[in-house]
Amino acid sequence: MALSFPLRLFNAKAARRLAVLSVQPSSKHPGQLLLQLARGATRQSLTDVELLGPFTPEALQPAAEQIVATLVAQGYSQSTSFSAMTELSSSQPKRRALAALALGWRNDAAAVPKLVQQVEAGKQDVSSAVAALGLLEAAKGQPAVKAEAQRKLLSRRRAGVEALRVSRDVDTLAALRPAIFERLPEPLAQALAAQDEAVASAAGVQALATAWDAVPAADRGLALDTLYELGTPLATAATLALLKRHEKNEATLRTFGAPRMWRYVKSVWKRAMARFDFETFATVTLLTERLARLHKGTKATLKSGLDGESREVTVFSAKTSRHVRGKAWRFLKRVALHRPEKFVDGAVAVLAGYRPEDDGLPLGKLGVTARLYLYHRLLLGTSKRFQLVWRTLVHQTRSAKAGVAAREEAFPGLWDLAPHAYVRLLGRARRLDVAQFALGALKGRAADALKTAPHADVVQLLDSALTDAQGLALEELVRRFNPDSPDWDVLVRLGQHEKDLARNLALQWLRRTAALWSRDATLIHRFLTELHPVVSLELARLAAPLVSALSAADRAALASALVAFVRAPEGVEGRHLGASELLCGPLVDALATLVDLQTALSLLLLPSVGASSVGSAALGRLPNVLEVLGWNRIAALARDERAAMRSAALAIVRSQGHALVASPALLFELVESDWDDARAAALHVLSGFSFTELTFDGLVALLDSPRVDVQQAALSKLQASFEQVDTQKLLARLAQHPHRNMRAHVLALVEQHLKPGFVQLSKVEPLFRALLFDPEKPSRDLKKRAITFLQQRGQLDAQQAEVAQRLLTDAVRTETRADRERLLKALALVQLAFPEVSVPGAPTFAAGAAS
Amino acid sequence: MTTLHATYAGATGVQADATSSAVSFATNGLRPVGYFHGVVQKPSALREALGALHRVVTSDFRYHPKDRTAFEAWVAEQDRKFIASLKLKSQQAREELERIEARLEALQAKKRERLKPFYDARRKYIDHVFTHQYELNYLFDPVITVHPDELFFEAFSRDESTYARLGVNHELFSTVDGFECGTTNIDFSAKLSRHFERLRTYRQTTFDIAPQGLTVGTSGTGVVKEKKIELPDSWVQGFLQVQSTMTLALTRFTLQPIDVHNLVRFLYRHKTRSSPRALRYELTPGERIRAVFEPYEHAVTLTARYEGPGPQVIRTWGRDRLKLLGRLLPVANRITVSLAGFGMPTMYDVDLGPLRFMLALSGWTDNDWAGGGGAKFDLLSRRLDATPDEVLRVYEALREPRFSTDVALATKTGLGVEKTRATLSFLCQSGRAMYDLGHGVYRHRDLFFDTFTLKDASAVTSQANEKSDPRAAAARVIFESDNVRIIARRPVTTGYRLSGSVLGTDGARVRPQLHVEKQGQIIEASCTCREFKEQALTKGPCEHVLALRLAHLRRLEEEDLTIN
Q1: I want to staple A235 with a disulfide (CB 3.0 to 4.6 A). Which of A230, A242, A560, A584 is the partner?
Q2: b vs e for A519-555, b when ≥16 Cβ sit within 10 Å of the residue's Cβ?
Q3: Is the pTM of this model over 0.80?
Q4: A292, pLDDT greater than 60
Q5: CB contact under 8 A, B218 and A775
């Protein structure tokens, strides 16, 4: 059993009655340790000090055991163990309980028989004795402990189960499992039964969280504790996720301290300490700390588990929250003293959990972090700048003059023993000051830690709030990267990362190693299916020209695997895009054999854009697709609002649209579509029609379009085949065009090509009325030309004069002065030419008025 | 809120090929009545009229504050830079900052340029989604009614301040293949205007109103579109209030299209940024009418002469809504303007030959026909008591021929003319009938799905019986407690002129004066009370005016009975 330091030994007969064995880091040999043996009459007069070592961390324990053996031979025995053993026989249950726990923490194996006796005695201190056996990992096979684990009373059952778990008594736990499972509410039990509990998958956690929501609110606390009691990886991860939900906002935080929840949350917290599950421990502790700042408890009448009596109690009172915070620190301190190798894990979990929003308002001697109890204890535990106010557990500034010491964190020696913890903390820290603490260490005393840190921890540094940390991570990753023998796992991790920074690095590496991975179809498949959609798409573009180098068999296998991939649900939006890029590009030929009509249509209907694109490409490749689908279905696809659906149909329209020459209704419909691609495809086909194929009516139908792009295309077509067009018929039709864009073109045609005579002039009347009565965006030039034209035609013969006069008279009372003058002049000239023509309402002019 | 559930088996639209086009209106499948099939003779006028109706349905002239978020962000950034520059003491640091900012600006410009295609695509997508969703949830579909002589569309603008009625006489159709009278909603979408643009005289144009509308899908059956629109109560009330206004005595004159062109052109050229923004009609007997734009005091002399008995100045607001008539002007024959009075609704009835387009504008844009402004034009109209049985009799008498004059209905039902008019007024205010201002007839039109029963009739009369309105209830209290006295009652060509003395519910004695039509509708009113001084008639008549009318109506009824 491992010794815990400092170790005190006592010999009542010796002059130097006390011997203290402690550990110190070696200043000369970084990473190695020294053992310090100090002896004296009392703790205050340890005069005889001896330094032994240095030792590597592995060699430390044997060396210490040897020293202890020597001291025991000299008549020394462990001092506290001695007194604790004595205390175990005390008549006071509290003293017995404290002694049991002390022995447990100290790993004093000699205490096991006595502790077992305590458990069998079943007195008030039984839970502490069981917990001590757990700490000693000696509960395995103890019938008394098993009996405790089956108790109805939560505290005793918890102590028993957790002692067995720490002692790795797998068989007993398996036997207890059905009873635990039975206590789970129905929805949770069903959800758990459907999952693999050995794997803490995200989907599994989500399923359990959903099931937990279905549990009545009053039973959720018990369900949470029972779930955690199961202790499987999935149950533990789900419990943590459910606890973290309370971080969301103030309302969710308050439910955490609610009457039928808090009792069980506290139980989970105690179990977490027994298991050294620091993540759960830190989450509950910090939530308690946050809730204590805004909630002073709720009165509720609850039934006691101990005596079954219902009493009105204050749930989550100030006293309780204070107790939790105090006990959390005492626990961490004990871990530091007795399980030093675990301390930094706990410290990292707690410090990483603090958020910038936890800051309070500064007031006098209280800084913004004054109420962050564990933060101060862990990060500023040895600082002289602050002092703890015990009553309220806040840290106030002791002296403004006190400078910042080089090391202010608690147990600095333990941090130095596990320098990788700095890397983990830096990657996870949400507060800048916490991140800076870790970064400072990594830049100074633990500079080498980054070089030996696991890949995952280095990648996680990219999430750090500090730009410097991201820079360090990138630097380290670049240092580690070997383009000749790349670590594809690291590359995939980077390529999956949420941050652009990481993904860009992954892309760089992919470009540098293209020659390697492009030869391996399996690797291409892995990248396309596992990387972030953006990276996957870029990779596909990189791979497109290189895929041709693969053997035919590899290409076929890759295409087949990618088709299977796009047929599966996309999960994250855009995940299919990379695969679809390759399948619709260099691997498109393989689609004809891999995808039949049914599959192509089913792919088209999937909500994934990538899958629809593959379906669309496959459809276009299918032989006799036109015969199979028919124009009606193709038309329906071409109208679809999804671009991928349209592209399949439009590809067919483009390639085989000429077949519609006899009945081009679909083309005329598509040309009016709201979708640019549909219009472009229809115009592409129609522009290939000769005038004879398009016919005069077809050309006018295009010119009639309210869309400017179609009008322009039709005008070009008209220009090309103007000689074959019946101009007068065309003008009569275009004169009715309501679109402003067409008016200038039509007026120009009228000016140049309208045949003489009032019949033709009457037919284009709507054009002139539209020009003269447009109040919104009239064109001065067009109006001027229209008036001039009417004036000229009105001067030619009496019938035309009548038409012109009517139009001019209707508009002559315009408030636009320039127009009115022109209109009056035109009317005067027309009247002068044909005075016998009169139109009701027309102004009359004296002779010579027009001049 | 009234939830309008509509299910359309097709879409409204125009399907045009090289030689023919078909205008199809998809009707609400949940209302089982009404269809029409015909061939249009003059599609270009119909095109413009439908285009104008579409503009009304999609218009919203309310004040929309400018989005200043970007500007405010820019100002905040400038402030930040200025404060940051104050902190910099050395010239070198300032220069360095300027250099960095210039570089940052260049990088941001580059970023904007690179991301432009993305932003453009995103904007297009959002526009698409917005338009689609807007139609489904917010665009109030017009109501269409098929009658033996015409079919008509009625719609409100998005801001509920503009009511449009497009009447299409059967003369427009060269052939009418069949129809069944009824009222229903039709599918209307924001993109319809483009469809209507394709109508031409040289293509044979069929006109269909049927549940399937334009079915362009492959299936041809089944539901294409489902709408669930929360109709504000003000929308429903608006329909009823419009009818009340139509039946009022109005000042009317007829304009040429160029007159309205001149007014609309001025509105397009001048964006008024300060009050007052009224359009003031100055009416002097025998002289050309002047329309004056405030605050410019720009006067447009109209072609029409005023033929009324005395000079009048009527100010109207919300003049920008006249732009809605813009596209009708090239095809319009004349426009009849009806003014209800100072700050009161205005109506523009555009004659398009076989088509008539009526644009009714509320007093001002923010004052919708019923809701926010609390206008109570129904109080101005007839208020004679009627029993539920009488209401039902008149309803049935109107339902069969679909339209009729009040006199003809009185003869048919055996009720007195006065009683019939009162009953018709109740029917108009409950959405069961409407008044056709152009033709001067009442028309049957069920605004709601459910059939009209005796129970509904008693609900109508009890609602209309003053209890629903505090002012009307107060007037009834005054009248029944004999606190109203007619001082003078003089018959004139248009009806009666009255003056009276009323002891109000607040204990103050006031002197209302009243000019009522023979039918009992208020033409003019004034009162010495405070309420009238503040609001005039913009929110309906005060309790004193209403009490005086009640006294007059009682006397009128007594005379009616004596004659009978």
Answers
A1: A230
A2: eebebbbebbbebbbbbbbbbbebbeeebeebeeebb
A3: no
A4: yes
A5: no
